[in-house]
């Protein structure tokens, strides 16, 4: 039986609508409606040229065929041409609609529009990976439904597209403003995407890789918390340990969904990951800001985690969650292989 899933075309359309609205409302307070409309349309169109020019033409035609020199040259040419065209078009339309006074356009001034395209190019690589991953996930899940391990692999992969696109929405504003911290955030997101593509399909991954994934996730989540968050992460284990991928993620994701008050200055998360007597002990502690914490939100959560743990370890594991005063505590104990 063929399973219907949202198409990548619809998904891309929704993302571009969100990008267009985000750029417009970000510029509106400073630039006014007329200038914001013009700059939004030009910016969005130029970003689309860079992203799709890379993922549909340059990347498959040159990079995937190992023509790295030509790929590098053409990427630079694309960024320069699109950036300068964006600057020239913006100035001309601003003058046409009497937004600015007529000015003499200098070649060097147009070059200032080029650097903003660099981060968009980086984003296009992430976009390319995400589309490939989303398409591959659809194909592999239909095949894996016929195998005995289908349910387990489905549970492992559910969180991936959900997390990716929510995170891209969170960091897009910083990318648009073009600053070094934004570039660092995109680099972390790239690491997460590589984890999704390279590591999550495996039965087990190095514990250090899993921890790096969690730390990258927490770093990205910090950007939507106004006053920041204090995270205490205790780690005591041997570096050669291996665990099933995405096993610890549910706890951390629930903390940022239900245990953070964006307007509070006293957000604190305590996490402990300890190896002890042949077992791995993972515990989290955070304040409760929501009166109820769903155990199965949008198909994810503790319920699915419990089911997956049963498939992996039978009854040889411990999983508890409880409320203790103003705190929400979670504990997981699994045997080490």
Overview of the molecule:
GO terms for molecular function: kinase activity. Residues 150-225 form the Signal transduction histidine kinase internal region domain. It holds the Pfam family His_kinase. The protein starts with 7 loop residues before the first helix and ends with a strand. The protein has a 5-stranded mixed beta sheet, covered by helices on one side. Strands 1-3 form a two-stranded antiparallel ribbon. The longest helix has 56 residues, at 8-63. It has 10 helices and 7 strands. The protein has helices spanning 8-63, 68-96, 107-110, 116-144, 150-157, 159-177, 180-199, 207-221, 249-258, 302-313; strands at 205-206, 230-236, 242-243, 268-276, 279-287, 318-324, 327-335. With 337 residues, the chain is α+β, with helices and mostly antiparallel strands. Helices cover 60% and strands 13% of the residues. The chain folds into 2 domains: 8-145; 202-335, Heat Shock Protein 90 (2-Layer Sandwich).
Helix content: 55-70%
Q: What is the ordering of alpha helices and beta strands?
A: HHHHHHHEHEEHEEHEE
Q: In angstroms, what separates the terminal alpha carbons?
A: 36 Å
For the CA atoms, what is the radius of gyration?
A: 23 Å
- Number-wise, the strands total 7
Q: Tell me the overall shape.
A: elongated
Regions with little confidence, pLDDT below 50 for 5+ residues: 1-5, 291-299
What is the average per-residue confidence, as pLDDT, rounded to a whole number?
78
Strand content: 5-15%
Strand order of the largest sheet: 2-4-5-7-6
Structural class: alpha+beta
The count of domains is 2
* Helical stretch tally: 10
Largest sheet: 5 strands, mixed
């Amino acid at each position: 039986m063929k399973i219907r899933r949202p198409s990548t075309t619809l998904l891309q359309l929704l993302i571009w609508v969100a990008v267009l609205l985000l750029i417009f409302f970000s510029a509106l307070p400073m630039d006014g409606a007329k200038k914001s409309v013009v700059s939004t349309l030009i910016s969005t169109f130029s970003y689309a040229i860079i992203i799709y020019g890379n993922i549909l033409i340059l990347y498959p035609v040159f990079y995937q065929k190992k023509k790295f020199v030509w790929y590098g040259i053409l990427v630079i040419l694309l960024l320069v041409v699109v950036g300068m065209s964006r600057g020239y078009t913006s100035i001309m339309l601003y003058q046409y609609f009497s937004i600015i006074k007529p000015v003499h356009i200098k070649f060097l001034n147009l070059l200032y529009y080029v650097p903003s395209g660099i981060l968009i190019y980086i984003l296009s690589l992430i976009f390319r990976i995400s589309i490939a991953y989303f398409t591959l996930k659809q194909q592999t899940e239909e095949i894996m439904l016929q195998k005995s391990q289908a349910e387990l692999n489905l549970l492992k992969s559910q969180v991936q597209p959900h997390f990716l696109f929510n995170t891209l929405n969170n960091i897009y504003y910083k990318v648009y403003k073009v600053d070094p911290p934004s570039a660092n955030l995109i680099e972390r997101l790239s690491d997460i995407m590589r984890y999704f593509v390279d590591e999550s399909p495996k039965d087990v991954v190095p514990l250090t890789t899993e921890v790096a994934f969690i730390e990258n996730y927490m770093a990205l989540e910090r950007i939507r918390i106004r006053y920041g968050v204090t995270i205490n992460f205790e780690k005591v284990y041997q570096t050669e340990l291996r665990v099933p991928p995405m096993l610890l993620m549910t706890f951390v994701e629930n903390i940022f969904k239900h245990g953070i008050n964006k307007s509070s200055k006293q957000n604190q998360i305590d996490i402990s990951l300890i190896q002890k007597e042949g077992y791995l002990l993972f515990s989290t502690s955070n304040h409760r800001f929501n009166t109820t914490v769903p155990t199965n939100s949008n198909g994810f959560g503790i319920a699915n985690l419990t089911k997956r743990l049963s498939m992996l370890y039978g009854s040889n594991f411990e999983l508890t969650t409880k409320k203790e005063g103003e705190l929400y505590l979670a504990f997981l104990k699994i045997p080490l292989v």
